[in-house]
Design a protein that fits this description.
The complex is a heterodimer of chains A (117) and B (840).
Chain A lengths: L5 E5 L3 H13 L3 E6 L2 H11 L3 E5 L7 H6 L7 E6 L9 H5 L3 E4 L5 H8 L1
Parallel strand pairs in A: 1-2, 1-3, 3-4, 4-5
Chain B lengths: L2 H24 L6 H24 L5 H12 L10 H10 L2 H12 L10 H21 L21 H32 L2 H28 L3 H26 L1 H5 L1 H12 L3 H9 L5 E6 L4 E3 L15 E8 L2 E9 L6 H10 L1 H26 L3 E6 L4 E4 L1 H7 L12 H5 L2 H14 L6 E8 L5 E12 L5 E10 L1 H23 L3 E5 L5 E6 L1 H7 L3 H4 L10 H15 L7 E6 L5 E12 L5 E9 L1 H56 L1 H29 L2 H6 L1 H10 L5 E4 L7 H22 L4 E8 L4 E8 L13 H10 L3 E5 L6 E8 L20
Parallel strand pairs in B: 15-16
Antiparallel strand pairs in B: 1-2, 1-4, 3-4, 5-6, 5-9, 7-8, 8-9, 10-11, 10-14, 12-13, 13-14, 16-17, 17-19, 18-19
Helix pairs in contact in B: 1-2, 1-3, 2-3, 2-9, 3-5, 4-6, 5-6, 6-7, 7-8, 8-9, 11-12, 13-14, 22-23, 22-27, 25-26, 26-27
The chains are: A alpha/beta (117), B alpha+beta (840).
Chain lengths: 117, 840
């Protein structure tokens, strides 16, 4: 599998975006952009064409599942993150089209790569 | 006895006594001639009187029996014959007459021998035949002292001692038999009724005298012939008088007829009828009975009904007719049946008097009947004279007056008996005003009777006038209506009680007929007041017109069901007030009977409109509380998620990054850890803020004052706090705190204020605390627009408090909550519902 390196971080909390960027870059990812809400995410995907999107489920304007619904056929790989547990979303993650879900506290480059493998 | 036989007997008797007298006066009898003549005359008298009796009373055998005695008596005359055989026959059979005599005396006056007397007759027969025969066989001169008499023709042997013994035996037996007859006659006389005694008395007297004389003479003659002679003469004299007595008894009717004339005179004199008739019949035991057509029964002179049979004991009844109709009965001595002609003559003579007496008896009977009715009637009947004195009255008057002694009522003024002292003057005046016509009147009066009981009498009076038209008496009829009045009062009292209850209870009461039409007095005051209707307009109108259209059918069904006797379960309907407003009423329909027993339907209900509104408000309030609670939870969850949770997640990433950098770039790792520490401090502060928002710890630990002081420290504008130091129940402190907190939050968010005040005051009179938050902001706050004030209102009302917001535009805002602190009685129907909020 081709190694994917460009990533877009979508989260409404700046502290998380800052930490995630440092962590992922340390693990070899290239963070090409950040967005703080759904609309911003869709716009950044459209303009930056990231290979991977790290998408927070709870956003101020729409949730991560709604963002996924609006992505086109050439959409990037999406990994959902949340400070909640995966069980809080039950079957939604499986049917959403995302590659997988990572709890925010568990985030690491290895975990993202594992889901993208 | 036929007339021919009687004639033959008379002829025979005439011949016999002609012969006998011839013998007496031709024979050489010496001194005994007078005696023998007396004997013969006695027999002759029997014969003559017997003949007369037989002719005059052919129905009675006594005459024939007397005639028989007389004829047989003549046999004794043969003793005067000078030839031996006739003399002996005369001696032996001369006593046969005594057999007939015994029969005569024992059967007198009916002529019929009583059962049990036959043997006496037979015994006499044996005595008078066997005795002389025995003497004649042994005594050549059987007649003591008769030296000239021929010798016995039947002499067998001259045995003077034996003859004397036979004579004594004959005399003793005769004496015994005579004694027996004597006792029997005495008993019979003593048992006889007076009329009978008058008949048998003389006969028995003469008989007994003759018997005693004869027996005595025969006894004495054995000792002293001279004395015997005298005695025998005397007894013969009695014997000779005896037929006269017999004849008098037999023919007494004829004799008594003389009394008829006396009866006529007595009736003319106006003597009592019974006494006159009793005298005429010679029967002091006489009673009279009169036939009452009205009662179809026999009554006495007083009009009292007699029991059948009317004749008892020794009496028998002879019925008297007048004009072909039975009018009376003579209850006379049974012995008078022997004098039918006399009784009939008396009855015929007095029949008119009997009829008159009968009518009087009938009147008396009617009077008694009326008297009985009057005295047994429950109505009071009183006759009062024109002076007002009670002249006559019935038993009911005695009962009502409470005076048992008639004499204490009669002659008294009626007002002394029936009018209480304080009303007497008025009654006397009223009575005098009614004179002289005393027109019919009616009135009711209450008085206290002699026993102290209060009585009520309803009187009706009417005048009684004489032939001149003058009022002589006033008749007053009354009914004792004490009990009725008492029941009326009792009923009225019950009715008043029920009416008062019905008119004072807050429940609605409507009474309808089976077609839902409101009956007279069929609605209580609560109903009329609540629905703006008058009783007059309700009576006769349909109750269904007062029910909202949608509920009309159900109401009709309920009333119809109750009218059929089925009590209806409570239901709720909307009833209409006069101005068309709807009131929700919880009501039942119950079958009842009104005071006349007519089936009715009782509709009883309570206005639950306010309760329903309150229930709806409570439901809405609860929903708001639940919604507010849910919103608070969501907010908390969001706050946790957005705040501390994010910071902790970032912290986790920072620590992992620092860990990775620690060996390759220690300096960067240190920077990361410093940032992480800052992040952690912020996360902690956020958690503290959250916890404070959930429930301020200081409120629980130190009370409302310190909590509010801590609260205003975080306010962006200056806030003045004035709070009492004392503690209140936790729920009340919490409510007061949140009122202040929410109001201050609103001040900070919306009021654009520069200053605010928080005042908490305890109102001891109202047992409540008042929380007031005032600001100088722009005003215009509206609790209905989700500013959180509505939630506060719910919280305060949950504690039965009141919550008001005054917020005129540009005039600042005043939020005021009054929260009760004292114990609150649970409202009816609240059940065990926890409304303090403490249990949540």
């Amino acid at each position: 599998m081709e190694t994917l390196t460009t990533i877009l971080i979508v989260d409404d909390h700046p502290s998380f975006r800052r930490c995630a960027r440092a962590l992922l870059e340390a693990d070899g990812f290239t963070v090409i952009g950040e967005a703080e809400d759904g609309e911003g995410a869709l716009s950044a995907i459209d303009s930056l064409h990231p290979e991977v999107v790290l998408l927070d489920v709870q956003l101020p304007d729409m949730d991560g599942f709604a963002v996924l619904d609006q992505l086109g056929a050439d959409a990037p790989q999406v990994v959902l993150v949340s400070s909640r547990d995966a069980s809080d979303y039950n079957g939604l993650i499986r049917s959403s089209g995302a590659r997988g879900f990572i709890s925010k506290a568990e985030l690491s480059g290895a975990a993202v790569r594992y889901l993208l493998r | 006895m036929t007339r021919r036989r009687l004639a033959a007997a008379v002829v025979l008797g005439a011949a016999l006594y002609a012969g006998a007298l011839y013998l007496v006066f031709t024979a050489d009898l010496g001194e005994p001639r007078a005696l023998i003549a007396m004997v013969t005359v006695a027999g002759l008298i029997f014969t003559v009187t017997g003949t007369v009796a037989a002719v005059r009373r052919p129905d009675n055998r006594t005459g024939v029996q007397m005639l028989t005695v007389g004829l047989l008596w003549s046999i004794g005359a043969l003793q005067m014959a000078n030839a031996s055989l006739p003399f002996t026959l005369g001696y032996v059979f001369g006593g046969v007459a005594f057999v007939a005599f015994a029969h005569l005396i024992l059967s007198y006056p009916t002529g019929r021998l009583r059962h049990g007397d036959e043997w006496i007759v037979w015994a006499v027969l044996a005595l008078v035949t066997v005795g002389p025969l025995a003497v004649s066989l042994v005594d050549p001169s059987p007649i003591p002292g008769c030296d000239d008499c021929p010798e016995s023709a039947f002499l067998i042997a001259d045995r003077p001692r034996l003859a004397q013994a036979a004579g004594v035996a004959l005399a003793l037996t005769a004496a015994a038999l005579s004694a027996f007859v004597f006792v029997r006659l005495v008993r019979r006389y003593r048992a006889a009724t007076p009329p009978l005694r008058r008949v048998i008395g003389p006969v028995y007297l003469f008989t007994l005298a003759a018997l005693v004389g004869l027996v005595a003479s025969s006894l004495v003659a054995t000792v002293d012939a001279e004395a015997g002679y005298v005695l025998e003469f005397a007894s013969l004299a009695f014997l000779a008088l005896m037929p006269v007595a017999f004849l008098a008894g037999i023919l007494r009717t004829r004799l008594a007829r003389a009394g008829i004339a006396d009866l006529v005179i007595a009736l003319g004199d106006g003597s009592p009828l019974r006494d006159a008739v009793a005298d005429a019949l010679g029967d002091p035991s006489l009673d009279l009975a009169y036939w009452s057509d009205q009662r179809q029964a026999w009554v006495d002179e007083e009009g009292q009904t007699l029991r059948e049979p009317i004749a008892r004991g020794a009496n028998t009844a002879t019925f008297v007719e007048h004009g072909g109709k039975r009018v009376a009965a003579l209850l006379h001595d049974r012995s008078l049946t022997d004098q039918r002609e006399l009784v009939d003559a008396v009855a015929a003579t007095a029949s008119l008097a009997f009829e008159k007496e009968r009518l009087q008896a009938e009147l008396r009977a009617q009077y008694l009947f009326l008297q009985t009715i009057i005295n047994t009637a429950p109505s009071l009947l009183s006759v009062v004279d024109t002076e007002g004195r009670i002249r006559n009255f019935n038993r009911a008057v005695e009962v009502a007056s409470g005076i048992d002694d008639r004499n204490r009522i009669e002659g008294r003024y009626f007002w002394e008996i029936f009018i209480d002292p304080d009303e007497r003057e008025e009654m006397i005046q009223r009575f005098r005003d009614a004179a002289p016509d005393y027109p019919p009147s009616e009135y009711e009066n209450v008085f206290t009777d002699a026993r102290g009981n209060e009585r009520v009498i309803a009187w009706k009076t009417a005048p009684l006038v004489d032939q001149n038209g003058d009022v002589v008496r006033i008749i007053a009829g009354g009914i004792d209506i004490t009990d009725r009045k008492r029941r009326e009062v009792e009923l009225q009292r019950q009715w008043n009680f029920a009416s008062t209850v019905a008119d004072t209870i807050p429940s609605f009461i409507v009474v309808t007929d089976h077609e839902a039409v409101v009956v007279q007095h069929g609605a209580n005051r609560a109903f009329c007041d609540a629905f703006g209707r008058t009783l007059e307009e309700l009576e006769g109108s349909s109750f269904l017109e007062l029910v909202a259209r949608d509920d009309e059918f159900a109401a009709l069904m309920a009333i119809a069901g109750a009218a059929n006797g089925v009590p209806q379960a409570e239901r709720e309907s909307r009833w209409l007030t006069r101005d068309g407003r709807e009131r929700t009423v919880a009501w039942t329909a119950t079958p009842i009977l009104d005071q006349w027993g007519v089936p009715r339907v009782l509709l009883s209900g309570a206005d639950v409109t306010e309760r329903k509104r309150q229930e709806a408000e409570i439901r809405a309030s609860r929903s708001r509380i639940v919604a507010a609670t849910d919103a608070a939870r969501r907010r908390l969850e969001r706050n946790l998620h957005d705040g501390a949770q994010q910071r902790l997640a970032a912290l986790s990433l920072s620590l992992r990054l620092a860990e990775a950098k620690l060996l390759v770039d220690a300096e960067q790792a240190g920077e990361i850890l410093v940032a992480a520490r800052t992040e952690l401090a912020e996360a902690l502060e956020e958690l503290r803020e959250l916890a404070r928002g959930l429930h301020p710890n200081v409120l629980t630990d130190r009370g409302l004052g310190p909590a509010l002081e801590a609260l205003v420290l975080r306010s962006p504008i200056p806030v003045e706090v004035d709070v009492p130091d004392e503690r209140f129940p936790p729920a009340i402190e919490a409510a007061a705190y949140y009122v202040a907190a929410e109001a201050l939050a609103n001040v900070a968010k919306y009021a654009d204020a520069t200053f605010a005040q928080v005042h908490v005051v305890e109102d001891e009179e109202e047992a409540a605390i008042v929380v007031e938050v005032v600001d100088d902001g722009i005003g215009g706050a509206d609790p209905g627009r989700g500013s959180g004030l509505e939630g506060l209102e719910d919280r305060v009302e949950t504690l039965d408090g009141t919550f008001t917001v005054e917020s005129p535009p540009g005039g600042g805002t005043r939020v005021r909550a009054t929260i009760p602190t004292g114990p609150r009685p649970l409202p009816l129907g609240a059940g065990s519902e926890d409304r303090t909020g403490e249990g949540r």
